Amino acid sequence: MAIVQSFSLTQTSLFKGIAVFAVAYPICLIIYRLLFSPLAKLPGPWSTRISSILESNALKEQRRTQWVSSLFEQNPGAAVVRTGPTSVSFNHPDAIKAIYGHGKASEGFGKSSWYDAFSTTGESLFSTRSKKRHAMKRRMVAHSFSAQSLLSFEPFIDLTLNKFVKRMDEFASTQEPCEIYFWFELFTMDLMGELALGNNFGVLDAAKPARYSTLVEQSQRFANHSGLLPFGKLNVKVLSWFPLPNIQRLYRARLEYLEYARVALEKRFHDERKKLLPSGRPRQDIMQRFIEARDPETGRQMDFDELRAETSSLMVAGASTGSVTMNWMIYYLSKNPDVRDLIISELEGMFPENKDGARPLPFTTLNKLSLLEHAELECLRLHPPIGYAMPRDTPSQGAVIAGVYIPGGVAVGVPAAIIGRNATVFKNPDKWDPNRWSTDSGNDLAMMKTCFLGFGYGSRQCIGRNVATSFIMKMIAQLFLRYDIKLENEGLILGTKEFTILKPDQKYKVILAPRKPTAR
């Protein structure tokens, strides 16, 4: 009996101890975060010391990047601001190499649990947090984005561009105002369908977007919301249980999006890839390269689920980011006719009309036109597709970043849209000036390139950068050689609204007219 009573007392004491701990621990944690944590000294709203609710609200209201930018505006000269209990954002050049760079300086900075929310049917090159697996995946697909591969993709780019131009010719013949960004989205969706799935979506022919494009955006928004939760790989499942109508709508879109990708890729993986071109070789697009890819060290190939995950990433990276960058190039070149006319003059000299009146635009020649490239860089500096920080976790021992000590296990990052307008790096940072990138500008180009995060930085920067640049430059060159383009509202001031991608904040139209070559 004594033993039983003793056991009962012990059990009761244990339950009481657990209850006390359950109450005391969160209270102590809140007090520590409010008063004693090294992060408590950093500028930022006091509530970010104990909660991510402000960032969550900003994400919900599609102003997350704007919210972080406002924190730096409220704290002039600050290198870092606090955005949550265990997350901070930097606006300092030194932070880029420290967090994202190569070598010992960035050792121990692993991708944060935020990326787990973007692993769908498997880890993609973008979502994998393992540096070892990332290195392996990059080895496998590096050849897919080489200069040689780029040449094999160009026929698909030209095919889709010709479809786009025929649509623009219809607007030019009547000079009916054209919602150009809408058509850019259709173009990039069809193009990425060709490159990633072996067939286009038919959206240029139908003149309306595919449901797939809506699902992509909604799925990405669900991932961003779940990435703010503290449960790591369980974030997606936990968020799917939230009985909020908006969250449930986004989750259903994620499931539908993944199923669509499965069906499309299955068709390509099992049937379409067997079809040979007249040359006897398989169709040479990005997905074919991925299917054939082998790790040169192990001989390993991707399985179906990995290919499905890579397909999902390709559609987001290529379609959404490409269309929005072309949008900004049209907008700024229309607003800056002196730069536009210089580009047109260089294009006409570089690409004379052939006997059929056409102007082939091979990228191997087009990429030598530095002013056009600088115009693209300037658009991406001011309006990177992803504006907020790509988070990395500090090593367990903590790290000193831009002179500020950050303890271990904190998500740190540099928002591309904010560092791209840092006045200590870019003179007149809010001015669109492609000439700032020229070698004779007198600017510190090395520092500017370090702080240019339009395609990311370091080993994790966008592997498809050359593919995106090729179709963006071909599109813009073709449009300005073929049409006189002006904004319907010449006083238009275009801003941004944050979906997952920073997109234009309003619909607008341009007027196209057939262009007569400049007299020489």
| Mean residue pLDDT | 86
The CATH class is Mainly Alpha
Termini separation (Å)?
110 Å
Based on secondary structure, the structural category is alpha+beta
Radius of gyration: 25 Å
Shape: globular
* Whole-number tally of structural domains: 1
CATH topology: Cytochrome p450
Question: Which sequence of strands runs across the widest sheet?
Answer: 1-2-7-4-3
Question: Could you give the order of the helices and strands?
Answer: HHHEEHEHHHHHHHHHHHHEEEEHHHEEEE
The number of helical runs is: 19
Q: CATH homologous superfamily name?
A: Cytochrome P450
Describe, in plain words, how this protein is organized in 3D.
- This protein is α+β, with helices and mostly antiparallel strands.
- It has one domain (37-514): Cytochrome p450, CATH 1.10.630.10.
- It has helices spanning 2-36, 53-60, 64-74, 93-100, 131-141, 147-174, 180-197, 203-206, 211-227, 235-240, 245-270, 286-292, 304-335, 337-350, 363-366, 370-382, 416-419, 445-450, 465-482, and strands at 80-84, 87-90, 110-111, 392-393, 399-401, 404-406, 411-413, 483-487, 496-498, 502-504, 510-514.
- It is globular.
- The model has no long low-confidence stretch (mean pLDDT 86).
Summarize the structure.
By secondary structure, the chain is an alpha+beta fold. The chain has helices at 2-36, 53-60, 64-74, 93-100, 131-141, 147-174, 180-197, 203-206, 211-227, 235-240, 245-270, 286-292, 304-335, 337-350, 363-366, 370-382, 416-419, 445-450, 465-482, and strands at residues 80-84, 87-90, 110-111, 392-393, 399-401, 404-406, 411-413, 483-487, 496-498, 502-504, 510-514.
